[in-house]
Amino acid sequence: MTSPKIILKKYFGYSSFRNGQEEIVNAAVSGRDVLVLMPTGGGKSICYQVPALTLPGCAVVISPLIALMNDQVLSLQANGIPAVAIHSNQDERINQDNIQKASKGEIKLIYISPERLLLDIEQISSRIQVSLIAIDEAHCISQWGHDFRPVYTSLGCLKEKFPGTPLMALTATADRLTRNDIANALNLEDPFCWTGSFDRPNISLKVMNDPGKKQRLKIIASLIEKYHLDSGIVYCLSRKKTEAMHEAISEMGYRSVCYHAGLTPQQREMAQKAFVNGDVQVVCATIAFGMGIDKSNIRWVVHNNIPGNIESYYQEIGRAGRDGLPAEAIMFYNFGDIILRRTFVDSSGQKDINNEKLDFMQRFAEASVCRRRILLSYFSEEVTHDCGNCDNCNTPRRKFDGTIAAQKAISAVIRVKYQESLNTIIDILRASTRSDIISKGYHLLKTYGAGRDMTPAEWNSYILQMIQLGLLEVAYEDNFHLRPTPYGMKVVKGMERIQLSSYEKPVYGAKSKKLKPEPAPILSPDEQLMEILKKLRKDVSSTQNIAAYMVFSDATLAEMVRLRPVDIESFARISGVGEVKLAKYGKDFIGEIRKFEGLKRTMPIGTSQKETLILFDSGMTPEKIAEMKGIAVQTVYSHLIQWADKGKITDFRRLVTESQYSLVVKTFDTDPENAFKTLAEVNHLPAHIIRAALAEQRFRSQ
User: In the chain, fewer beta carbons within 10 Å around the N or the C end?
Assistant: First the structure.
C-alpha cells in the first residue's frame, strides 16, 4: 500500500498535510468511522480523496448537488485521478458504464447523490469493492442543521449495507447539537472525531448599517475594481433582489451573472460555469448558489441582506479565500431585512429554533465587539483575544451623547400613536412629502422635520442602536410598528441620558465605469508577474474547458511568484504542483517566469531529460510520461537509460521485467553479434527494452 504522504505529493503536489488531515486519513485507512468538522476551505476533500487512492477498491462520495459532483470530478481528473459521477443529468448508459468501470477496478472515486445511491445501492454493494463511503455536507442529515434534507436520513442504512466499510461524515457548519445528530443518524461506530478550528483569519469581517442602494453599489464596484482579476459573490434575500442587483452591476459595465432557484437547471448550470471558469467577475445569487464551490480565487463576498442564521453566513463567507490568501466579507444590515426574515421564520416548520438562530445572527450584526470572537463562540470555540481583522477591531466607533436624537425619534413614535415602522419615522423626522405622510396629517406634527439635519442613513443607524439599547421595541405582531419602552420613556422625559456610536460614512467609493475612470494603479514586479501567470492560467483553462482554479490555485501562483522557479526541478517543489500538472503545464509556466526574469523562454539542453527523471521518480510509468509529454516512449527510455548510467535509477523492474532481462543477457552471452536482431525479430522485444536491460546489466556489474 502506497503511503498517504506519497499519494498527497504525487497527485496533489503537497509535501505535507494541513492540521488534522493526516490523523483523519490514517483513521480512515485503518478502517475506522470518522466524523470531520472542518471549516470551508480547510481541506475536507483531501481527507477522503487520499484514503480513496491509498486503499484498494473504489470510494463512494455522497454529495448533494450535481454541479458540485461535476466540479470535483473534473478537478480530480485534472490531477490524473480516475473519478466519475453518477447522476440523473447524464445519459443512463454513461451511469451504467461508470458502474461497470468501477466494478473492474478502473475507478477510484464515484460521486453520487443520496437519492441515486439509494436507487443503485444493491448494484453498487454487490458489484463494486467499496473502500470508503464519504458523506459530504453531512449537516444535511440533522433535523437541527440549517440545510436539513430528509433524504439524508435514509443514509442510516449504510452501515448495514456496507458492513466493514469505514464511513466518513464531513461538514463545515455544525453546532454541538448537529454534530451529535450526525453521528447518531449515520450509526457511526466509535468514530474518530476531528473538530478543526472554525477560524478563517484571512477573511476580514465587516458589517455596515445599510448605506442605501447607491452607496452599496459603489462599495461592490470598488471590490470588483480592487480584485479585477478575481471573483466575488453578492448574496441577496430573494430572486427579485438578485435580478435587480445583477442588472445594476451589469449596467455599471462589469461582467455579472444571476443565480437562483427560479432559473432552469440549464440556466443555473451556465451561470455557475461562467463564474467558476472566470468568464464573469460577479455572481449575484440567493442561498441556492455555492454549496461545495471550490473556486480558489473568490476574493470577496457581499451579503446584500442579512442571512437567516450563523451557519449560512459562515458557509457563504467561507467561499472566499479558500486558498488562504486575504479576502473580504461585507454585510449590509437593514432592520427591514430582520422583519422580513421573521415572517419567513413564522412560516417555517421549526419556528422556535429558527427564531433563536436569527436572534444570534442579529446580535452578531449589531455587535460592537470583535466579530470573529462572536462567530467562533457560536461553534463552541474558545477565543481569548480579539482578531484584529474585523471592523470592530480595526475601527472602534466613537461615542457621543445621543440623548437629543433619541428624544426626537421616540417623540415621533409617540405622536404617530405607535402606528408606524422605522422607515416612516425616519421620513417624518426628515420632513418627507410622501403622499401618505401628508394624508395622515403627519406633516402637522411637532416632530415633523425635527431631524432634517441628518441623512436617512444616519437616522437608520441611530434608531437601530436605540432598538439595540432597549429604548424602542418592534411590535412584530402589529406590522412591525415601533413602540417606546419604559427605558425609552425615561430618556424622552430627560430622566436618562444615552450614548450612541457615531455614524461613519462608508469610505468605499469606486466610481461607476460611466464616470471618468481612475488611473490604473502602478503594479509592483510581483503583482505584474501574478497578472501574467493568471492570464496564462485563464488561457490554459479556456483551451482545456476547465475552471481556472483546476489548473493552479492562487496560492500556488503566489508561491511561483515568490520563488520564481526557472527549471523543472524547482517548479516541481512548488506546493500544489503534482506530477500530472508538472508534465501538463510546467513548460508554459516556467517559460513565462523565465521571460519575466530576462532569460530565454526555452530551458537549457538537458532539462527535458531532467523532467523525465522527476516524473519517473514521482511514480509515473515510461508510457505515462510519454503520453504526458507528447513524445515517443523510446525517447523516454533513452532519457532514463542515460540517468541509469549515471546511477540515478536503480529500480529497473519499472523498465524491464525479470524475464525480459534474463532473456536479453542470455542472448547477448550466447551470440553477441546477432543478439539485437534475434531479440527483435524472434523474441519481438523493442529496441528500448533491450537497451534498458543492457543498462541494468552495466549497473549490476559495477
Answer: C
Sorted by sequence, the CB contacts under 8 Å of residue 513 that are 6+ apart come out as 252, 253, 254
Fold (topology level) of 399-501: Arc Repressor Mutant, subunit A (1.10.10)
Q: Which residues contact 666 (CB under 8 A, 6 or more apart)?
A: none
Is the separation of the CB atoms in 576 and 556 below 8 Å? yes
Q: Which three cell numbers stand for residue 13?
A: 503536489
For the segment 90-105, what is each residue's pLDDT rounded down to a tens digit? 899 999 999 999 999 9
Which residue would you say has higher pLDDT here, 417 or 210? Answer: 417
Phi, psi torsion values for 244, nearest 5 degrees? -65, -40
CATH of domain 4-195: 3.40.50.300
Element (H or E) spanning 102, and its range?
Answer: helix 92-103
CATH superfamily for domain 203-394: P-loop containing nucleotide triphosphate hydrolases (3.40.50.300)
Of 330, 280, 275, 277, whose CA–CA distance to 305 is shortest?
330
Domains 4-195 and 203-394 share a fold: yes
Tens digit of each residue's pLDDT (9 = 90 or more) over 222-278: 999 999 888 999 999 889 999 999 999 999 999 999 999 899 888 888 888 888 888
Are the CB atoms for 664 and 694 separated by under 8 Å? yes
Phi, psi of 677 (to 5 degrees): -65, -40
> CA-to-CA distance for 483 and 463, rounded, in angstroms?
12
pLDDT score at 102: 95
